[in-house]
Each structure stands twice: as structure tokens, then as C-alpha cells.
Design brief:
Helix content of chain B: 40-55%
Oligomer: heterodimer
Number of strands of chain A: 11
Structural class of chain A: alpha+beta
Order of helices and strands of chain A: HHHHHEEEEEEEEEHEEHHHH
Shape of chain A: globular
Helix content of chain A: 55-70%
Largest sheet of chain A: 9 strands, mixed
Radius of gyration of chain A: 20 Å
Number of strands of chain B: 8
Largest interface: A-B, 43 and 49 residues
Order of helices and strands of chain B: HHHHHHHEEEEEEEEHHHHHHH
Shape of chain B: globular
Number of helices of chain A: 10
Structural class of chain B: alpha+beta
Strand content of chain B: 5-15%
């Protein structure tokens, strides 16, 4: 556990790193400040702090790879993610052929050795391979600064490492993404709040109007609900808890997008204001490892099939 | 004046087997006790029962839990409790709600009124009054709202003036839950000028059998007479029944409302969880839309998670303030979403079922419509969030 002064110091270092760097420079800064050691020592503190700050600062790093690699016990490898919207394993092993349809982060440009999880019958197995053997297509899309890469094709010459717990890795990744979504949402709310206090119409700040105030209040409620769900999900780390928290964080981020965009009005619709970068980021983050709607539907299907609700969070 | 009950409770230190301050041990012991005393604790009626019967049931559960010691943990020794973390009393509330012994709304009254009375009453008064409340021998009610004062609490006009005998109170309260059962009322009165707004309010602790109090129950749309109009006609209240000092009423109310909006709601998550489980078991195949069901499951989970964090903050001595408006919004959202889902999935039961289960769904659906109204409307909660948590400035 990282606690007390150590936690304060770690958090301050992360704040400085995410405020000053992005991309490979942030990876280097994270390396220097001991992010990998922190992840090994205290997953909850490391993941929740870094990803919230990364979301707030709208910066990118290889930290999602780090988290999944850590969960799969292959530190510092690039990890193939499921394709947009999916959370099932991105590879399949069928009659000796290992085929991949997934996503990679910018880290594939600096980490030659990648791992991918394949569904093998009813279990999951981990494979190590050379990423350059796959077809890769840069995704500019809605958020080019994320520098995602679509990877697909058949892996030739991969090495099977052995069985892994893919659902647990997904859960950890969903928690990380949930914190990043919450961090981004909080920053959007800050931007809208500042604007509401500065912008004068009808002789007063628009923050005086109840229609504006209630949009921002609803945004905070959605964010706090998602954050509470994330904190509760860390208690049992169950797949169902992480999926609920990720779904709520994605939905809260969409609520923040909608209300904050409306409050920011014209200026928030331009590239002269930073708001659009958050909208772009959220559109991608909400899809990674499961979109709110599909995770929610999956949960409902599961409850209907088993006739059991997820356990009540203990006091 | 009619004779007043003078039962005295002498707090005894618990026997060793009750000397438990750790939540896990407390949980285990309470669960075992509930199992062992199952028959004794069970309601003496089938189905929902009348409000009279449900109040008697709550009183019985409180008495048994108090006499066994459990209901005293988490309350100060000066109030007849055994001390220890407030988490312990939260667990007891949850446990008796989760096994359907009591209904969560009516049961929560001591959690709404107790903490602030403990803070503001003279020590001798709270030491006398808290134990019978916790033991279920007495019921308290909350005299805040008035016909002209709903959301705008600071405009209240129920007047208290000084006399040789004490305060003399004249005016009217409304929506006063359980007042026809109550022995005591926590009453907000106007002691300053009308223009003094929040500054001229004083809180009094009033005996409901005092001469000059008239109660007229109001029937709610779920068919209950849970709240009333309460009329005060020159009612004498001794000065030593003042909660805090003259003019401290607003501070008292601001201290109390966060408990009403958060810690008193804690056991409702366990209740919503159980009712959602009942719905999943009861609904015909295909009646529940998976996405809607998933979303309600998440809303209940998030409310529970938020409420749990609030309980732990209170136990750690943290502030219970404006942030509790978020707890209240989350409860109201989850509760209404759950019963909306029930109404969609069980249309025959809600509209025309005459069995006990159907009547319960119908009653709870109707009751859930009030969740965005009582304890500060959804709009008031958003105003508080905007002003106090987002610091958007005053809107007046």
C-alpha cells in the first residue's frame, strides 16, 4: 500500500508529469517517477491517481498498456486491445491459426514485443509476438492525438506463454478507463463553470440562471455517482463491479459533454477553446473495453439469465 | 398538563459478549441474533399491515434490539448508547431492513432527528430523551414545513414568544410525518421579526401531549395517513426545551438536513436491492428490458456506493454537509427508476392485482413519486449543489 506522505508525493509527481508532458515524454516522466513500481505495490492508488489526472489534463501515455501488461504479468510489453466497443479477447486460436482483430495504442511504435490474449475453447491464453508481423493501420479518427492503431491479421511465429485471467485484466483496464473518463468529465465541468461565471448576458453571469445551474449540478451528480461506483468496484475488483463502474463513467462523461457543451455554447464549439479535445477523447474512451450501452445490456442479460443481482456492496 | 412518562434509562456497560466495536464482529453478532430471534422479531401480521401495525412493529424491533444492546452501539454514552463507531448503527439499520422486519423510511426517523438533537440539546435533556427514542418507547416528529413554507424554509411563521411560563407557540406545520404517533416534536419557530428570515428562527423540543396541539392527518396518494397538519394554539414550551439558543434554529436545521439527506437514507439501498431482486424473480420472461434492468442495477449500485462513502466519512468524524444533496438526488433517481421499471414489468399487478405482493408494488410505486419532493425537492438539491459545491454564487 502507498499511504500518507508517500501517496502525497506520488500524487504530486503525477500531477507535475501529466501537466507538463504527453505521449512518449509522459511515458519517460512516468518511468522516472516510479509509476511501474507504484503499479506493482498498489494497483488501486497507482491506477486511480494516474488515470484521473491523465483524463483531467487530456494527455496520452502507454499507461493502459502498462496496466493490462501488469495484469497479464508481462510488464512493459505492448498489449493488443479488443476492437472499438468490445471487451472480448482480441485474438482467436482456431485449428492452429492465431488471428487478431484489435487495437494497439501508440506504444506499439516504441515496444516491439507485444502480447495478445486469445480465446481458446472456454479459457484464455497469452501469446507473445512481433507486432510488425501484423497489418497495422493508423487511426486518425475523432481523436488523432490518441494515435491508436488498428491491428489485424494472422500471427506467424508467436510464442504461447500460457493461460491467463483475461476477465481480471479487462476489469483492471475498465477501472483505469473509468477514472480517466471521470477525470476528463471533471475538467469539462470546470471549463463550463468558469465560462458560466465569466459570461455576462442580460446584465448578469449566466451562472445566475437556474437552467444553467441545474445542468451543471446534474453533471456533478453524474460524475460523483460514477466515482463512487469506481471506488466501490476497487473493493471487490469483480468483473461485474468494474463493468458497472466503467459503464457509469462513460454515461457520466456523455452527460458532462452534453451539458457542458450547451453551457459553453458557441465558444465550446470552436477549436479556439480546449473543450473539443475532451469531447473527442471521451468518444473513444467510452468505447474502449466496452461502451456504456453494451456493458449495461450485458449486465441486464446476465441478471435475467442467472436471476441474481450483483452482490450488495458491504458496509 | 397531562402526566408525562418519566421512565429513566440507566445506561449500563454491556456484558463482555456485547463489548464489540469492530464492524465485522458486530455484523456477525447482529446477524446471529436476528436468526436466533426470528420468531420474536417477525411482524404479527401478514402482508403490508396498517400504519398502526407497522409502527408497533418498528417499536417492537427497536425495543428488542435496544434491550439486547445492538441498538445502543454507535450512539454516545451520554445519550444512553454504548459509544463506538456510527458505522455500527448503520449496520443494524441495514440488517433489520434487509430481512424485511421494518420499512426503511419510517425506521430512519432517529437517524434524521437524533444526531442534531444530541448536538444542540442541553446534555440533561438529550440524556433523558434519546434512550426512549432509541428503544422505540417514543416517536419523534419533525415540525419544519408550513403551508406557506415548503422549499423556502427561512420564511416560516409559526410564532414563539417569551412569557413567564416559557415560550408560547402559535402557528401551523404541515407534512409532519408520524405526528399522530409522536410524543415529541422537533419544532422550528419564528422568534424574530418576519424580516429576520433565517436569523430569527429558534428550534424547540416540544411535548406532543401539551395543551393546544391539534393534529389532522392527511391521506397520501398511496393511501396512508403518514403525515399530518399540526396546529399550535398558544402552546407553552419551557425555556429549557430550547435547542441551542434563541436564534440558533437555522443552524440547527442546517445541521439536521444533511443527515436527513444522507445517513438516514443508508438502509434504503439494501431495500432497493432486495426489491429489485424480487422484481427479477417475479417478472414474466421477456417483461424486463435487459438494458433498462442493467441501468437500474447500476443506479442502485452507485447510490449504495455513495451512501457507503458517506457513512464512512461520518464515522471518521468528517463533515456531513452540502455534499449530501448528491446522496439525496441519487436515491430519488434510483428509487423512481426501479419502480418505473416495476410498473412496466408488472402492469397487471400494479394496475389491478389484489394480492399482498401486488398491493405492495402499487403502494411502493406511488410512494416513490415523493422521492424527488421530501427532504428538499430535486430542484432544491440542485440549487444547493450549484451554490455550495460548484460555487456558482447565490442565485438570489
Amino acid at each position: 500500500m502507498i499511504e500518507g506522505d508517500d501517496l502525497d508525493l506520488f500524487e504530486r509527481s503525477l500531477e507535475h508529469a501529466t501537466a507538463s508532458h504527453t505521449g512518449p515524454a509522459l511515458d519517460a516522466a512516468l518511468e522516472d517517477l516510479g509509476w511501474h513500481d507504484a503499479l506493482a505495490a498498489d494497483e488501486r492508488a497507482a491506477v486511480s491517481r494516474l488515470f484521473a489526472l491523465q483524463g483531467t489534463a487530456n494527455v496520452t501515455s502507454s499507461a493502459l498498456d502498462d496496466v493490462l501488461a501488469h495484469a497479464l504479468d508481462r510488464d512493459r510489453h505492448a498489449v493488443v486491445l479488443p476492437a472499438i466497443g468490445r471487451w472480448t479477447a482480441p485474438a482467436a486460436l482456431d485449428r492452429g491459426r492465431l488471428t487478431v482483430d484489435g487495437l494497439a495504442t501508440a506504444s506499439v511504435r516504441t515496444r516491439a514485443v507485444a502480447v495478445v490474449v486469445a480465446r481458446v475453447d472456454e479459457t484464455h491464453s497469452l501469446f507473445e509476438f512481433d507486432i510488425t508481423t501484423l497489418r497495422r493501420r493508423s487511426i486518425d479518427g475523432v481523436d488523432p492525438s490518441l494515435a491508436l492503431v488498428a491491428v489485424e491479421g494472422e500471427i506467424d511465429g508467436g510464442t504461447e506463454i500460457g493461460p491467463v485471467d483475461w476477465p481480471s485484466a479487462v476489469a483492471l483496464g475498465q477501472l483505469a478507463l473509468g477514472h480517466e473518463l471521470v477525470g476528463a468529465s471533471r475538467r469539462m465541468l470546470d471549463l463550463a463553470r468558469e465560462h458560466a461565471l465569466d459570461r455576462i448576458q442580460f446584465g448578469q453571469p449566466i451562472a445566475m440562471f437556474q437552467a444553467v445551474r441545474h445542468r451543471l449540478a446534474d453533471t456533478l451528480v453524474a460524475i460523483e455517482a460514477a466515482d463512487a461506483a469506481l471506488e466501490a468496484a476497487w473493493l471487490d475488483r469483480a468483473s461485474v463491479s468494474a463493468a458497472m463502474a466503467k459503464a457509469m463513467a462513460g454515461r457520466a462523461a456523455r452527460t458532462a459533454c452534453r451539458h457542458c457543451q450547451q453551457v459553453l455554447a458557441g465558444i465550446g464549439f470552436t477549436t479556439e477553446h480546449p473543450f473539443h479535445r475532451y469531447v473527442r477523447r471521451i468518444l473513444v474512451l467510452e468505447q474502449l473495453l466496452g461502451a456504456p450501452r453494451s456493458l449495461t445490456r450485458e449486465l441486464g442479460d446476465e441478471v435475467l439469465t442467472t436471476r441474481l443481482l450483483p452482490a450488495l456492496v458491504p458496509l | 398538563m397531562p402526566a408525562r412518562r418519566t421512565t429513566r434509562f440507566v445506561p449500563k456497560r454491556p456484558a463482555d459478549r456485547f463489548a464489540i466495536l469492530d464492524l465485522d464482529a458486530f455484523r456477525k453478532s447482529v446477524d446471529d441474533w436476528l436468526d436466533e430471534h426470528d420468531a420474536e422479531l417477525a411482524p404479527a401480521y401478514d402482508g403490508a399491515g396498517t400504519l398502526d401495525k407497522r409502527m408497533a412493529q418498528i417499536s417492537k424491533v427497536r425495543r428488542l434490539a435496544f434491550d439486547a444492546g445492538w441498538a445502543r452501539w454507535g450512539w454516545a454514552e451520554s445519550a444512553g448508547g454504548f459509544g463506538g463507531s456510527t458505522i455500527l448503527r448503520a449496520y443494524l439499520s441495514e440488517a433489520v431492513t434487509a430481512c424485511d422486519l421494518v420499512e426503511p423510511g419510517l425506521y430512519s426517523m432517529p437517524e434524521v432527528l437524533g444526531p442534531s438533537v444530541l448536538t444542540y440539546a442541553r446534555p440533561a435533556l438529550s440524556a433523558t430523551m434519546l434512550p426512549p427514542l432509541l428503544r422505540g418507547d417514543e416517536v419523534w416528529c419533525q415540525g419544519f414545513s408550513e403551508p406557506g413554507t415548503g422549499s423556502n424554509l427561512a420564511a416560516l411563521t409559526c410564532r414563539a414568544t417569551r412569557s413567564d411560563d416559557g415560550w408560547r407557540v402559535t402557528g401551523q406545520k404541515v407534512w409532519t410525518s408520524l405526528s399522530q404517533y409522536a410524543q415529541r416534536c422537533v419544532l422550528l419557530t419564528r422568534t424574530g421579526s418576519v424580516e429576520s428570515a433565517h436569523r430569527g428562527i429558534t428550534a424547540l423540543f416540544v411535548d406532543m401531549d401539551a395543551y393546544g396541539i391539534t393534529i389532522r392527518p392527511i391521506e397520501t396518494m398511496d393511501g396512508e395517513q403518514e403525515f399530518s397538519e399540526v396546529f399550535f394554539d398558544d402552546v407553552v414550551v419551557p425555556f429549557d426545551r430550547t435547542l441551542g439558543g434563541e436564534g440558533d434554529g437555522w443552524a440547527f436545521a442546517m445541521d439536521l438536513l444533511p443527515y436527513e439527506r444522507s445517513t438516514a437514507l443508508w438502509q434504503r439501498a439494501a431495500w432497493l436491492h432486495r426489491r429489485l431482486a424480487d422484481l427479477v424473480r417475479t417478472a414474466e420472461p421477456g417483461a424486463l428490458d435487459p438494458t433498462a434492468l442493467g441501468e437500474v442495477t447500476q443506479l442502485v449500485y452507485a447510490f449504495r456506493a455513495r451512501s457507503r462513502a458517506t457513512q464512512h466519512r461520518m464515522a471518521a468524524g468528517g463533515e456531513i454537509g452540502a455534499e449530501t444533496s448528491i446522496d439525496k438526488v441519487l436515491l430519488a433517481t434510483a428509487e423512481q427508476a426501479l419502480f418505473d421499471l416495476a410498473a412496466e414489468a408488472l402492469p397487471a399487478a400494479i394496475t389491478g392485482g389484489d394480492d399482498v405482493a401486488s398491493e405492495r408494488w402499487r403502494s411502493e410505486f406511488l410512494y416513490s413519486r415523493a422521492a424527488t419532493i421530501y427532504g428538499g425537492t430535486a430542484e432544491i438539491q440542485r440549487n444547493i449543489i450549484a451554490r455550495r459545491l460548484l460555487d456558482l454564487g447565490s442565485d438570489r
